[in-house]
Design brief:
Helix content is about 45%, strand content about 15%. By secondary structure, it is α/β, with parallel strands linked by helices. The strands form two sheets. Strands 3-2-1-4-5-6-7 form a seven-stranded parallel sheet, sandwiched between helices. The protein has a six-stranded parallel sheet with strand order 10-9-8-11-12-13, sandwiched between helices.
Amino acid sequence: MRDAPLKIGLLTHSVNPRGGVVHTLELGHALHDAGHDVTVMAPASPGQRFFRPVRCVTRLIPVDAAPRDMVAMVGSRIEAFTASIGALLETARFDVLHTHDPIGGNALANLVDAGRIEGFVRTVHHLEVFDDVQLMRWQSRGFQAARQVFCVSRLWQRMLAEDHGVGACEVRNGLQHGRFSPLRQATDAALARCLGVRTGAPVVLALGGIEARKNTVRLLQAFVLLRARWPEAQLVIAGGASLLDHAAYAREFAALAQASGLAIGPGAAIVRTGALSDEDIPSLYRLADVVAMPSLNEGFGLVTLEALASGVPIVVSRIAPFTEYLGEADAHWADPLHSASIAEALQAALTSRSPARTAAMAASAARLGATFSWAASAARHVQLYREGLHGSAAAAARSIPC
C-alpha cells in the first residue's frame, strides 16, 4: 500500500554534536513520531554513545578511535559500515537507506555494486575541499552513486547541478520547538560559573569549534577590534568535535590570541568549552549577548534559528544560504572576508539592544519557527522517498533540481 509506514535506515558520520548529526537525529525523531520504523546508524569507538537520547532504534557500528591519517580513518569506516550494514541486511529489510555523509554514501555504494541493495538516498549538507585525491574521490562517489540526492539549501542544490550535474531536491531543516527560550533558568548561572563565562561584560558566542570553514581566525581578529570599546568582552567558542583535522588552523588561532595578549581558558578573554552536554546548549545561548556565525561555507546554519529562538541577536555572513531564509532585519550582516566588517556587525548587535529590538527578534523567531519544522521536513522526506521508490529510473536520475 502506497501510504504504509516505511522502514528507514538513517546513516550519520558521528555520535557527536555536529550539524549533520543533529539533522539526522531530529529527522529520525520526526519520522518515528509520524509512524515510520526508523533505525539510526553511526560509528562509535568503545564507550561512545550518541550525545543526546534517541527515541528511535539505534545501531552503533564499532570502529577504532580515529587515527591521525584521514585517508586511513575514512577508509576503515567505510569498510566498517559496509560490513555492518551488509550483516544487518541478512535479517532486516529497509525500504529506504539514507545517508548524510560520504562515509555512509560509499558504504551504501559498495552494497549497490555488490547487488545487496537497489539504491540509496544521500543528503548533501555541504562539500569540503580536500588536498588528498582519494578523499575527493570518496566525497564525489558518496553522492554521485545515490539514487536520490537532497540538499538543505538552494545554494547547494544549485552547486550540485552546476558543478557536478546532479539534480538534488531541497529539504528544509527544522527547529526543535520548545527547546530554546529567552527565559532565564537557574541552570544558566551554574553553567556560567562552570565554564568561566563572566556576567556583565559582552559575551560573543561561536558554535562549531575552531575551523577554517567557520572563519574563526577572522572572528578573533574582529573580537580584538571589539575589545577596543569593550575591554572586558569575552569570546566563547563551543563545540568542535569533528572528524576532520583542524589542528593547524587551531594553532594559527592560538598564535593570534597570544600575539594579541588574549589568554585562553575559563574566565579568560577567550573561553573554549569543547563539546558540551546537550542539556547545556539552551543555557549557553542565553549567556550570550550575540551569536557570531561569519562562516565561509555552510550547509544551512541551524545555529541561527536556535539563537533567535533564544532571544539572542546574530551576526552572519552576507552569503547564501543565510540570505535564503533570513530577512534583512533578522540578523546583523557582515562581509566574512573582512574582520573589520565582522567587528562592525558585532558592535551593531551589542549597541542596538532594546525592547523594540527584542520584540523584533521574537517576531523573527516565530516566523522562522513556523517555516522550519521537523514534522514538515519529515513529511517532505517521505514524499520524496516514495517518489524514489515508485518512480521510474529516469525520474530518479533526473538532472533538473526539484
